[in-house]
Every structure is written in C-alpha cells, then in structure tokens.
Design goal:
Distance between the termini of chain B: 53 Å
Radius of gyration of chain B: 23 Å
Radius of gyration of chain C: 18 Å
Number of strands of chain C: 12
Structural class of chain C: alpha/beta
Shape of chain B: flat
Oligomer: heterotrimer
Shape of chain C: globular
CATH architecture of chain B: Orthogonal Bundle
Chains: A mainly alpha, B mainly alpha, C alpha/beta
Number of strands of chain B: 0
C-alpha cells in the first residue's frame, strides 16, 4: 500500500478517514456536553453551599472546589474508571451477580469531566452571584416578591448573564479535557486519531487532523459564547 | 481504608515526585522565556510579529495538551528519516524531551497572555516619566516596566504554575512514570482505586499548596508599596484617587 | 548665543484630523521662568511635551542648549533621527507631570536617584547624598524610605520635583503640576517651585495658577487654539491685557 497523503487521510474517499473522524468529533462533543451539564448541576450546588452561610455546607463546598481544582484531571478519570467498576462489581456481588461489571466508558468519562468541571463552574457561579447588586434584590423584596420568586425571576437570570464569559472558559476546559477520556478507551476524536495512526503508520497526519478539529470546536465555542454574551448584555453598559 | 497499604502507596508514589518537578520546572522556566518573547511580539505594534504570536497562542490554547503531546511524540515519528538526517531524532525519540517540549510550548501560549496583561497594566505615566529622564528603551523595560508587570502578573502566573504541575500528569501517557503514571500502575495491580487516588491526590495538593504559599510570599515581598508605611506611620492625607501611582 | 536654553521654532502637531499646534515658537534664556497659559485644548501641554519629544512634532524645530534635535520624515510621520540624542537631551530636560508619575515600585529616595545612577552613571553614594539633600530641600526627607502610595499628593509632587532636580537639568518642564492636587495641597508645591525660580533655574510651566504666573514668572505666554495669542511681561499683561480673549481668560481664572 502506498502511504496516503494528508488530504487523502482526512478526505471522504474510499480510503479516507473523514467520516470516522467526524463521527468521533461528534462523540467528543457529546461527552463534553454531558460532562459540562453534570458540572453545571454540581457547580450550582457547590456555589449554593459556599454561599449558604452554613459553616458545614461552606466547608464541604470549599473542600470540593479546592481538591478538584488542585489534582490532575487524569487522576480523577482513573478514579472513576477503576473505582466505578469496582463499586459496581461489589454492588453486583451483593445482589448475587458474580461477574465483572463496568460502567460504559462514555458515562465514566462524562462523570469524570463533570466532577472536575463542576469545581470550576462553582467558582464562576459564586463570582456571578457576588456581582449582583444588592439594590436589585432589595427592589425585588420591596415589591413583595417571595424568596422563591425573587430567586427565579431576578437572581437566576442575572447570575446567568454575569456567568456567561466564565462559563465559556470552563466549557473550553471540558472540551479539552474530553481528549483525556481516550486513555480509558472511549473512541472520541483523539482515540479515533490514534486508531487511524496505528493502522496507517502516519500518526502526524492523524493527530494534525485531530488538532484542527479540536481547534474548530473551540473556535466555534468562543464565537457562540461571545454571541450569547452580547445578547445577554443588552441594556448593560460596559465599564470603560 | 488500609493504612499500611496507603503507607506503601505513598512510598511508591513519592518516587515520581522528582520527575514531576523536573518536568514542571524545566517547561515552566523555558516556557516563561518563550512567553516573554511572545508577549513582546504581541505588543510590538509590528503587524507580522503580532499576528504570528497571536496565531501561535490561538492554536496552542485552542487544542488539548494531550493532542500536542501525541503530535510531537508519536506524530513526528512519521518523519523519522528526515529528523535523523538533520540530527534531531535523538531529541524526539525520547519521551522525556518530547514531554518537556510539549509542556513548554503549551505553557508559553498561556503565560504569554498573562505577561501581556501584566505589561499592559503598567501605568503609562510611569513609563513616560522614565522616557522623560532619558532612559533608553532597554533601561525602561528592565528598570520600570518589567518589575511592575511582574508584580501585576504574579497571581495569574501562580495559577499557571499549578496548572502545569497538574499537566505533568499527561506525561504518564507517553510512558513517563511520574506520580500519576505510578498511581495508574498501582491501581491496575491492586484494584484499590480509592486508596491510591487519595494518596496521589494528597501529593498533588501538597505540592500545589506549597506553590500557592510560595507565590504569596513572593507577592508580599515584591509589594512593599502596598504595605503599611515604615515606622507604622500613616500618610498625612492620601493622594486623590486619580493621581495615585499604580 | 549661548544663553538661550530652549528654542522652539514653528512647532506643528496634529492628532488625526485635529491640529493642536499651528506653528508655535518660543525662546527661553537661561534663568527664564515662563508660564504658559491657555484653556484646555489650547495645545499648551502638547507644546511642552514636544520639547522633550514625548510627542514628536509634525514640523518645526526644537533646540536645547544650542543642540537641535534631529528629526526625520518617514512614511508614518516624523521620528527622531537619533534615539540616543533624544535620550541624552531628555536627561538634561527634566519634567514634572500633572499626575506625578512616581515609580510605584521604588521608594521615594530610589525614585530620586534612579536616573542619576542609571542614566547619568554618577557614583552611587554621591547620588544618594545629593538625593537626600534634595528631599531635605523640598521638605520630605523623612519620607525617603516610604513608597509613593504612602504619601499625600502634595508630598508626591514634591518628590517628583526632587527627582527632576536630581538630574541637574538645564531646563525644567512643569506640566500642570498642581492640577491633580486637592486645593489645600497646592500651596506647598507652589512654594517649592517659587524657591526654584528664585535660584535662577530655567523653568517652563504650564499652569492654571494665575498667582504663580503673575508673581513668579518673568514671562507669560497665552495660547489659544494652537497659536500664541499674546505674550510678554506678566505685570504688563495682567494689568493691561492687550487681547480680549486673554482678558476673559484671566477673569475666569481668578
């Protein structure tokens, strides 16, 4: 077999890996989105805990964000990969099933990304909440809004608007972290590139193609978040 | 939890720390020099230089570090004959060099933006005062701009150091047995993911805690102008806000 | 003529479409104290900043102590022909800024001795001794080890004057030195400036302080929209303004 050129490899011809790489890009996007959403839930909870004023809750929130931002993502992925299947197998044994049970790598990956991402999102949400003006909240109280109504109508929309730039950065982290899920065998973009590299012996072209596709994802994300920010910031005058 | 096992785990994992520190230390120091160059290019006002630096930063911040590592370590293998010819193969054959190389290129892109922010934060008037007393371009940079920029950029750069400490873990994917690599092997052998994770995590947290403290100390030492006046004496009357230096 | 300290001839400067200086000339002899007055936007600060090349004039000539600063025309406008000449001349022309511009990372004494040691390469101890003497002179010797942020605005400006004096300048430029100060701090800075004038130093002062212009300077120049509207001896000009605009200007700045 003659070695393929770069454009044949990434192309959609008979020997081209284009479709496979595109599909894998979809998997990357999917696992990153799922991780990001898990992170949003955890992040909102952790931010609420930190802001709650309850000493124990705040301490737990602090512990979570400090630890998860201080240890390598890869370590967390290993914990979920090995620890998760171990826990499942043990649960299975208790229920009378003796074989090995594993979580699907997609789920493991999304959870691992989510747990790390949540720690960063918590900081974003907390910062956004703290930048709410006290006056707006007082105004809400003065027109007789209940706590819940005020939270839903005033706090959440405002926090979301202030949080958009920070969330954009954290989303990029999720996207880039998803490449690490390749080490536990999820066939996302980087893993697909490795497979292609192995079978054609042209690793540079495959990793280059992967890099370009990641760059496309991060670039589109940047633009999308910028648009969202511009929309959300209508009616807010920028400082300076 | 099995404390004896965790003790043994600790002794195993701690052996990965020198490699971790080597990877982080080397790439951070070479990367910082490179980053300063990139930041200067960004601020040079010369279109081509600015554009080149900007594209570099865009690419390296927009792609995962692991892809960069693979591109350098596995990818360049595709060009082995050519690299052998120009006498570079000894470098790209070694996982350690490749890891340092990739980490260096990566941190340079992030640090360049941090340095740029620091340089931009230097009050224009203080540079003008330096010009007005006849300092040359180089003197102005060395004596005024750089010291002020370093103080400004320090907290963000401290963050970058921590990110790099964490990033060294990716070297384990190309066979380098630093802390995460050793932890992975231990988990695979013992199937005691939680214990190994706790010990490995504690090692990283300790290192990052030490980094954070060190940065705080340096920040404090470099910022005498933000501390109390000597002899505990308060200023007579603070300057109006718009006129205060820095 | 060796006793001409600064000579500015036909200075022009535009920022974009806005022509700020439309051909301004000025001559200061050794020992002259010239107050430059004018409404904001009249070009007075720009003229001062052209003298030490903080702004590069589009046209015209600046001569300091008989040496003309060489300028060359490029496609992107004028620029100094020889950067080292500019640096050398700047070290003979000291400037005091409206916003002090003390270096925030250095103590007051370090600010004062920075240029003597690193630009003029004078012996360290000599520079330190002279620096302390200058701080004594402006009345803040006790603040030598403090950082600028520890000082009041008036003290900072006096430190900036000491920093300028430390370069043993041929000419001193003051760019609205009291405009950023609270009213009660203006006096201490003006007192220092007055004592410098009495020593016979050559000073060009852009200011809004009519008292200083009238009583301390030996010449007053009034700029309006980038041209010299009128100039002359302060007593005569203030007592009997020949220009209607200048008359209005002084009556609104009383």
């Amino acid at each position: 077999m003659t070695p393929l050129g770069f454009f044949e490899i990434v192309g959609f011809g008979e020997r081209g890996w284009g479709p496979a790489l595109l599909l894998a890009t979809g998997v990357t996007l999917a696992v990153a989105v799922c991780g990001f959403l898990v992170g949003s839930v955890l992040g909102a909870l952790a931010a609420a805990a930190k802001l709650s004023g309850l000493r124990l809750a705040a301490a737990i929130g602090d512990f979570y964000t400090t630890v998860l931002r201080g240890i390598p993502d890869l370590l967390v992925i290993y914990l979920f990969y090995f620890g998760g299947s171990l826990a499942l197998t043990n649960i299975g044994r208790m229920l009378g099933y003796d074989g090995f049970l594993g979580l699907p790598v997609f789920v493991t990956g999304a959870l691992a990304i989510g747990v790390v991402n949540g720690a960063y999102q918590a900081e974003v949400f907390r910062g956004a909440y703290l930048s709410l003006s006290k006056g707006e909240l007082e105004a809400a109280r003065s027109v007789g809004m209940s706590r819940f109504l005020m939270f839903r109508r005033i706090v959440v929309p405002q926090v979301m608007r202030y949080a958009i730039p920070g969330l954009g950065n954290v989303w990029q982290l999720a996207l880039k972290e998803s490449a690490l899920i390749s080490v536990i065998g999820l066939v996302e973009l980087l893993r697909q590139a490795q497979i292609g590299a192995g079978s054609t012996r042209q690793p540079f072209y495959f990793f280059l193609a992967a890099a370009i596709l990641y760059l496309a994802l991060t670039t589109i994300s940047t633009i999308a978040f910028q648009k969202a920010e511009n929309r959300a910031m209508r009616g807010v005058r920028r400082a300076g | 939890m099995d404390l004896a096992f965790m003790g043994r785990t600790f002794l195993t994992l701690i052996e990965g720390v020198p490699l971790l520190l080597e990877l982080a230390g080397l790439s951070l120091s070479i990367g910082a020099v490179f980053a300063l160059l990139l930041a200067t290019m960004r601020l040079s006002g010369v279109g081509v230089l600015d554009w080149t630096a900007q594209s570099y930063i865009f690419v390296f911040r927009g792609t995962p570090l692991l892809v960069q590592i693979f591109l350098i370590y596995y990818g360049l293998g595709q060009f082995r004959p050519a690299l052998q010819e120009v006498g570079l193969w000894w470098f790209f054959r070694e996982p350690f060099y490749c890891a340092v190389f990739a980490l260096t290129l990566n941190t340079a892109a992030y640090a360049a933006e941090i340095f740029r922010g620091g340089l931009l934060s230097v009050p224009h008037g203080q540079i003008e005062a330096a010009k007005a007393c006849g300092m040359s371009r180089l003197q102005r940079f060395r004596r005024i701009t750089l010291p002020i920029a370093v103080r400004q950029a320090l907290p963000a750069y401290g963050n970058e150091i921590i990110l790099m400490v964490k990033a060294t873990s990716l070297a384990s994917v190309i066979t380098l047995m630093e802390v995460t690599g050793l932890a992975h092997r231990l988990i695979a052998q013992s199937f005691r993911a939680v214990e190994v994770f706790v010990v490995a995590g504690a090692i990283y947290l300790f290192i990052n805690f030490a980094v954070t403290r060190a940065i705080l100390v340096i920040e404090w030492r470099l910022s005498p102008h933000l501390r109390q006046a000597p002899e505990g004496e308060a200023p007579m009357k603070p300057a109006p806000a718009h006129a205060r230096g820095a | 003529m060796t006793d001409v300290a600064v000579s500015v001839r036909n200075l022009r400067k535009s920022f974009g479409a806005l022509e700020v200086l439309k051909g301004v000339s000025l001559e200061a002899r050794e020992g002259d104290v010239i107050s430059i007055l004018g409404a904001s936007g009249s070009g007075k600060s720009t003229m001062l900043r052209c003298i030490n090349m903080l702004e590069i004039p589009d046209d015209g000539e600046v001569t300091i102590g008989g040496e003309t600063i060489g300028l060359e025309r490029t496609r992107r406008g004028m620029r100094p022909a020889d950067g080292r000449q500019v640096d050398r001349i700047r070290s003979e022309v000291a400037m005091v800024f409206q916003s002090f511009n003390l270096w925030s990372h250095m103590t007051i004494l370090e600010n004062v001795v920075e240029a003597p040691i690193h630009v003029q390469k004078r012996p360290r101890q000599e520079a330190l001794d002279e620096g302390m003497a200058l701080l004594e002179k402006v009345g803040i010797a006790d603040k030598a080890k403090h950082y600028p942020s520890h000082l009041s605005g008036g003290q900072q400006q006096r430190a900036a004057i000491a920093r300028a004096l430390a370069m043993r300048p041929r000419v001193m430029l003051f760019d609205e030195p009291t405009s950023a100060l609270d009213p009660e701090l203006v006096g201490e800075v003006l007192r220092v400036m007055r004592s410098l004038a009495e020593e016979g130093r050559t000073m060009l002062v852009v200011t809004h302080e009519m008292g200083f212009a009238r009583d301390v300077s030996n010449r007053v120049m009034y700029l309006h929209q980038g041209v010299v509207e009128c100039e002359g001896e302060p007593q005569a000009m203030f007592a009997n303004p020949e220009s209607e605009r200048f008359r209005q200007f002084i009556s609104s700045h009383r």
